[in-house]
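Lay summary

Proteins are chains of building blocks that fold into shapes. Our project writes down both the chain and a compact code for its shape. Here are two examples, one after the other.
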Amino acid sequence: MLQRANRDAGLISTAESRMAVLQSNINAADRRVRDTFDQTQQQTYLLKREIDKVQFLFDALDEASFDLLPDEHPIAACEAVWTSDQDEPEGRLFLTDARLIFEQRQEIAKKKVLFITTEKELIQKKLWESPIGAVEELEAEDKKSFLRRQELLTLRFSERTRETPGDVTLQLKNTDNESWRALIRKAKTGQINSERYGAPAPEQQLAATIEQETTTPPKDLPTVCPNCAASLPPIFKGMKQVVCDYCGTTVNI
């Protein structure tokens, strides 16, 4: 058309119109290609974040001062500060399908010279744990101040024990409190099991559960101490043993 318009001036407007259509098609193709790459880049970024979370979880478990139970499965871990405790210990919060665990992991100055730390000591110990079924209430709060934002998560437990405080407030790091609140709820209800790799569809899981409940008699949970006959504390999901408040006998569930 350009060659013909070069010989016939009357075709110039037609050539310009066709060039405009061609340019529009080129722009549309360019946008489609860019959108495809943007989506791929976004998916790659999200996948990398998930891989980093899993890597952190397993590294944290390798370094932890406690062991998982034989049939306990880890779900997530993050850096956290126990802000409601007067000492505000720093450490890691662990979530499994059976427990919620906070472990202190903090370097503390052991020796200073002229206000400069010359020697540090790593403090690492489990400060508290709770069966996942004993988590009664969760509150997420974003506390904002000048150039600062805190992801706060408050947990309240059904009953205070030797291993579980009444309630705790944690400042989560490198994550968001809403995601953790959702994960804890999924772990408590058992919904997290449907997200396992290779897990059957929800309707198949429901059918299997109903069949198991109708064919397998429920296991009676202990209610009294076999040693002193005192009433045992309540038993929640995730508990593998219960300790008698009166004589200290440990009863396996």
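And here is the second example, written the same way.
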Amino acid sequence: MDTTSVIFTVLVALIAIGSVIFILTSRNRTAGEKLSGSRNSTTTVAMQLQAYERLVILVDRIALPHLIARVNQPGATAREMQLLLTQNVRSEFEYNITQQIYVTSEAWTAVKNLKEQNLLIINQLANVLPLHATGLDLNKLLLEFLMSDKKGTLHEVVSEVLSYEAKKLME
């Protein structure tokens, strides 16, 4: 048998196997579609719950106290720390942006508002510091602001909203 015959035989076998797999999977899909939608709704709820879980983790990761503890760079200037903090918030948010298709628009808006508020707080407080300020100065100012202003606890409110909506799905 020459090389061309072997290639032809293998190609025919692959096409035959592919056709059988296609027929079997399309039959299973058709049979599954005839069943009640319980499997689809169970899968959908599971995906939604996973999205809420990921968003709760996102909220925790961009909460300013946790962000400061995680991103802190000893010896950084206030400007460098500002960039690290804002880049981290944006990166975390962008990584989870697809979760919006699985949650309510209210939940997604709450997460977006938290991101925007945190960026605003970081930038505004960094801008009031003198040019020679350190990253430690910025972190200290941010934490003082969070302790004195109720807006600083928005991450807790957003987490509660996400948890509440996830619990409603499980009812």
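What can we say about the second shape? The two ends are 65 Å apart (CA to CA).
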